[in-house]
Amino acid sequence: xxxxxxDLTRPDVHLHIGAERLAxxxxxxxxxxxxxxxxxxxxxxxxxxxxxxxxVAAAAEAFESWKxxxxxxxxxxxxxxxxxxxxNTEKFGRLGAMDNGTPxxxxxxxxxxxxxxxxxYAGWADKITAEVTSTLxxxxxxxxxxxxxxxxxxxxxxWNGPLISLAMKIPPAVAAGNTVVVKPSELTPFSAELxxxxxxEAGFPPGVINILPGDAAxxxxxxxxxxxxxxxxxxxxxxxSKILAACAPTMKPxxxxxxGKSANIxxxxxxxxxxxxxxxxxxxxxMAGQGCAFPTRMxxxxxxxxxxxxxxxxxxxxxxxxxxxxxxTFAGPVVNQAAFExxxxxxxxxxxxxxxxxxxxxxxxxxxxxxxxxxLQPTVFADVDxxxxxxxxxxxxxxxxxxxxxxxxxxIEIANGTRYGLSGYVHTKDLKRGLRVAEELITxxxxxxxxxxxxxxxxxxxxxxxxLGKEGGxxxxxxxxxxxxxxxx
Length: 489
Ligand code: NAD
What we know:
Layout: E1 15-17, E2 20-22, E3 29-34, E4 39-45, H1 49-66, H2 71-87, H3 89-100, H4 104-124, E5 132-134, H5 136-139, E6 142-149, E7 152-156, H6 162-175, E8 179-183, H7 190-202, E9 209-211, H8 216-224, E10 228-234, H9 237-247, E11 254-257, E12 263-266, H10 272-285, E13 297-301, H11 305-318, H12 337-352, E14 356-359, E15 379-382, H13 389-392, E16 399-405, H14 408-415, E17 423-427, H15 431-440, E18 445-448, E19 467-468, H16 473-478, E20 481-488
Helix pairs in contact: 1-8, 2-4, 2-7, 3-4, 4-6, 10-11
This protein binds nicotinamide-adenine-dinucleotide.
Nicotinamide-adenine-dinucleotide binds next to helix 8 and helix 9.
């Protein structure tokens, strides 16, 4: 069943600078393409360096009063924003599906998480405390610390979770007393447009949260702007390297949330149905495999290897790929033509490298207006060499690599054998082993027996090519505060 995707009206997108809502930007326009049909569906204005400059000036001006705004008031505004996101859940569902083809059901669960992240950091706004570091009687002088906001934070996000990425970054930054200029991905402008309108409706003072549609050049201008005191970025490692290089001359700090090649270790005593269900759905189903922390390498004990490969195949073949707006669709298209071609190239190379294609490997052919969409079959390879390209590099598409291991030490060695370090997954009924492996994995988080991603109170963020710094939990708000030490003689 398909719905009339083309009938859904795409909202006009604006540059949100201070109290202004501009329909045009000085960097021209970008043609948004509906990934489900392959056809252009909206012209988006792009911010140039001029508008970046104006947005940063608006944020810098707003900072002077926002940093003095009572923390309880910051909390109230963030709670109001969370209420408004909740009230607009259905609308965000449609906009998310229009943005990047994510099915309505998946967007709904990400919207729920976005509300949770916004409320969680609303709760932190009035709970930021500091320390007494020395006392007059013991040390001869009184010392203490202050936790202070940086000022204007430049936020740059990618396209796979256009709302959740906003909710992971903006609430902690403003709860801590910073103001922000946000550049969403040019590929996904619609969710951010509604978010910007809700910021106004919630009553945030103009300039506290500025949202600018823009491309790589707008992002670069934001990073380089001298009044931007910290950068928070979600995207790929190649862009992150450029951002770090741009930050280097002025030692500007940056949080970088990048990609992954996360291992999912399935031991012989695991609940196989649960482990295979999780490992398959979360790698070749959900978001068409376009998730940074997804378990994209499945490492399986050799004693259960063929059984697992067969179970994964059966589950992958049941995943319904189709219209993001249709009931029952689990996986939509990949984000654009470039990704569609790139992922097919990865599949061809994996075959050449000798991996065994278990299922998929081709575009998923759909009819009618979806015939030109960027749909791929859920694709599973077994016998993947841990050193091959498929095992070493993030695909960001619906492709799973399965590799056998001999014993616990071998599994850990393979799991730790990439340049990434975002997430690790373990499936075993032996909790002691699960905890032991969790200590050995060189990753920012480890999730045992199917624990969910993106729990707001648990820090998230990796090592190596997976990035720097944390989002989530107390660590997530601390990224937006610097510590000042004060001594009194
Ligand atoms: P990308 O790095 O190409 O783009 C991300 C953003 O950076 C976009 O808004 C883009 O316009 C902007 N940009 C591009 N060049 C820039 C520059 N020189 N200076 C400043 N900004 C610039 O990333 P992508 O390919 O769109 O996204 C996919 C990547 O994002 C994957 O690697 C994925 O794993 C990662 N990701 C990470 C997380 C996480 O939280 N760890 C979450 C989602 C996605």
